[in-house]
Design brief:
five-stranded mixed β-sheet; Immunoglobulin-like; 45 strands; alpha+beta; 15 helices; single chain
């Protein structure tokens, strides 16, 4: 029985505690539910006026869940968040029980330059931690700025110095007043002049009784005629407003004269002198000379002209009003050139005079050479003996389809290895002087016994071959043999390649000892046909025909044709529009759409544009060669070489691409500009070589046989044909000077 009584008592205690807890929280909930979200905006008061640089928004806010944010909205747009948490014991005492009631104040500053010059609506939005919101509004006004220009009046005629006066008011106070004419700042006005009349009319504005301003404007640097005078007022709140009047500047008219050259005159000599005089009421700042639409340079101003000063007294610096300028006649285009002189005054006013200078489109000069054509030919053309010795020779592709022969007696068969001529064949793999078996007199085929035998080190290698020569076992170092992967026909010594089956026929070139042969006929004959390079030695008559200028060229070039263009000065000017040049380059591989790069390179490096394009067309096979088509890669970089620079005949692709990589020619435009710079620096504009014609680039008659751009004797005519046939006819203007050699 006692046990049951204790158990029942415990249950009663637990039930009582539960009921008490529920009753307690219910009472708290009811209490919080009676707390209303309330707020007040203490400042500004509604319909008050803004003053100073800022308006302070201040007040307090209470929320039953606590205040999370106080947002300020200006004229319907969110402006920012107020600082909440200001001490407000008065609010806490009046409205006890709110979270953080003693720190319920907020404040926020609005720059007054954001306010409209009319009625503004300010909304304060209080957001509670539970997401509930409470909003209050207040309206305030901003007095619109006021200003007046009392003097000068609209359209007033002024000269020399003019007094600018007036007054300005701003609700935040006036910080400064700028004076501008035609948008140019002339200075800052003096502000604070006593204006009791303004103070009486507008007493509500700060400092209204001292709102006057004045400024003395010097009109010397202002153009004659109508000009816009602007008063720019800056308020302390950052606001800016302005007032404008037009003033008419009365000053002397600008006058000038071109004394020389007379219009439509013809240029002669190296330079054309442009001379004259100029007067400007504000003084002359610059005298510019423009040639064919492009700025050419500034004339020297200040030449003594007492005659001008006497005729037109009263102008600044009238006695020193002369100017002069020299135009290089090489800058003139062939035919009519449009020139204008532009005089700029200190006030920015401009006076211009136009005239024309005419030039012949074609000029020709003879370059006399102090040796004969026969001597030139003897230097340039190789003998058979010099060919056999390895002289680099002239070439042409004129005979590319003709048969080529060598004497059968010079041919040898090599199974796998041949020893070079002049080699010590040794009894052991040692360079001791007492173990020489024999010395070879020509390239000698041998039988390989052992490919790798260690022995004395020669040229950094200790690898020797054991061979069978003339029935004897011997040794040769690996550096003095030629190895072949398959049985090969070759020649035992350097051998002339002939145009016919006779020693007296024309030599096309040389097969070097050890070079593999591609035989095209039977070895039973005394002469055997072989496959030979397309590039072959021209005949002496071929060479002479390319060296001799035509009689017409020697006498005087009066018209342009493809043959005469090999003598054109490659700094001569030609104008081709980008559109026309791009049209010509269409379909030419990576040269397509590169007109801008060619034109820029031509101007940068003083090279004729038509030549620059034509040379690239020739070297790249119309943009399709391996060095030009974007397929050649060096160290992971695509490279371009449009002028065959450093592309040597025996390994053109490898050497040309490596050079392009070293020069960072990784895109077509870089290759065009880089190639142009290289040609200009090394040939056309080189102060030592001066190879400024295609003829000079190929034959270099100043130092024949040296520093010649190409081995192809037809390189000049091939480029000139492209220039004449394809580029001259799309040019807009040109002026060409021809330099024709005359041999002694």
């Amino acid at each position: 029985m006692k046990k049951n009584q204790v158990s029942n008592f415990g249950r009663v205690i637990i039930m009582f505690c539960l009921l008490f807890t529920l009753s307690f929280f219910s009472s708290i909930e009811k209490a919080n539910g009676n707390l209303q979200n309330i707020m007040s905006i203490d400042s500004p008061t509604t319909n008050s006026y803004a003053s100073g640089a800022e308006t302070l928004i201040g007040g307090w806010a209470l929320n039953a869940s606590g205040v999370r944010d106080v947002e300020v909205h200006l004229n319907g747009e969110f402006d920012g968040k107020a600082v909440y948490g200001g001490r407000r014991n008065d609010v806490n005492q009046a409205y006890p029980g709110y979270p953080n009631g003693e720190n319920s104040g907020f404040n926020y500053k609005i720059p007054n330059n954001k306010l409209l010059n009319a009625e503004n609506t300010i909304e304060v939005r209080v957001i509670g931690n539970d997401g509930t919101t409470n909003t209050s509004f207040v309206t305030m006004r901003k007095r619109m700025p006021r200003t007046s220009i009392d003097t000068p009046k609209m359209g007033q005629e002024v000269q020399d110095e003019v007094l600018i006066g007036g007054w300005a008011l701003d609700a935040s106070g006036v910080k400064k007043i700028n004076i501008l004419v035609n948008g140019n700042l002339f200075g800052e006005a003096n502000y604070g002049v006593r204006r009791s009349d303004v103070g009486s009319a507008y007493p509500e504005y700060p400092n209204a009784s001292n709102s006057g301003f004045n400024f003395v404007l010097n009109t010397t640097d202002i153009p004659r005629g109508k000009n816009a005078l602007v008063i720019e007022v800056h308020g302390w709140d950052g606001s800016v407003y302005s007032s404008k009047v037009d003033i008419n500047i009365n000053k002397k008219i600008n006058i000038m004269s071109i004394d020389s050259p007379t219009t439509n005159s013809y240029a002669s000599g190296a330079e054309t002198l442009i001379g004259g005089w100029a007067l400007n009421a504000s003084g002359v700042r610059d005298v510019e000379v423009h040639l064919n639409g492009e700025f050419d340079g500034k004339a020297v101003y200040g030449g003594r002209r007492n005659d001008v000063n006497q005729a037109y007294p009263g102008y600044p610096n009238g006695e020193n009003s002369g100017f002069n300028y020299k135009i290089r006649n090489t800058s003139l285009l062939g035919g009519e050139n449009n020139v204008y002189v532009k005089v700029v005054g200190n006030d920015g006013s401009i006076d211009i005079r136009y005239f024309t200078i005419n030039t012949s489109k074609i000029t020709s000069n003879q370059d006399r050479i102090d040796y004969s054509l026969e001597k030139m030919l003897s230097i340039q053309y190789p003998s058979d003996e010099s060919l056999l010795k390895g002289m680099t020779y002239l070439v042409t592709d004129k005979y590319r389809n003709e048969k080529a022969f060598i004497s059968t007696n010079s041919i040898i068969f090599v199974d796998r290895i041949a020893v070079n001529s002049g080699v010590n064949v040794r009894l052991s793999p040692s360079i001791k002087s007492d173990n020489v078996l024999m010395i070879t007199s020509e390239l000698t085929p041998v039988q390989m016994l052992l490919e790798s035998v260690k022995g004395d080190t020669v040229s950094g290698s200790d690898n020797w071959h054991k061979i069978l020569i003339n029935g004897a076992e011997a040794f040769v170092h690996s550096s003095v043999v030629k190895l072949y992967s398959v049985p090969t026909y070759t020649v035992k010594e350097n051998t002339l390649v002939k145009s016919d089956k006779s020693l007296g026929s024309h030599s096309y070139g040389v097969v070097k000892a050890g070079d593999s042969l591609n035989l095209l006929s039977d070895l039973a004959d005394d002469w055997i046909e072989i496959k030979f390079s397309n590039w072959r030695l021209p005949t002496i008559q071929d060479t002479k025909s390319k060296l001799i200028p035509s009689k017409a060229a020697i006498n005087d070039i009066t018209d342009v044709d493809s043959s005469s263009m090999i003598f054109m000065d490659l700094t001569s000017q030609i104008t081709i529009s980008p559109d026309k040049l791009n049209s010509y380059l269409s379909g030419k591989g990576k040269l397509e759409n590169q007109a801008d790069a060619f034109i820029e390179a031509s101007k940068l490096y003083n090279i004729n544009l038509a030549y620059l394009v034509a040379h690239a067309i020739l070297e790249t096979g119309h943009g399709k060669s391996s060095l030009a088509n974007g397929t050649t890669v060096v160290n992971g970089k695509v490279v371009y070489n449009f002028y065959g620079i450093a592309a040597y005949d025996n390994d053109a692709l490898n050497s040309g691409s490596k050079y392009a990589y070293n020069m960072s020619w990784f895109d077509p435009a870089s290759a065009i500009k880089g190639g142009a710079e290289w040609i200009s620096r090394n040939y056309i504009n080189n102060s030592t070589h001066k190879q400024n014609t295609l003829y000079k680039m190929r034959w270099n008659y100043s130092n024949p046989g040296n520093h010649q751009y190409s081995t192809d004797i037809e390189m000049p005519s091939k480029i000139s044909n492209i220039m004449f046939s394809n580029l001259l006819n799309i040019s807009e203007n040109y002026k060409m000077n021809f330099i024709v050699p005359t041999y002694n």
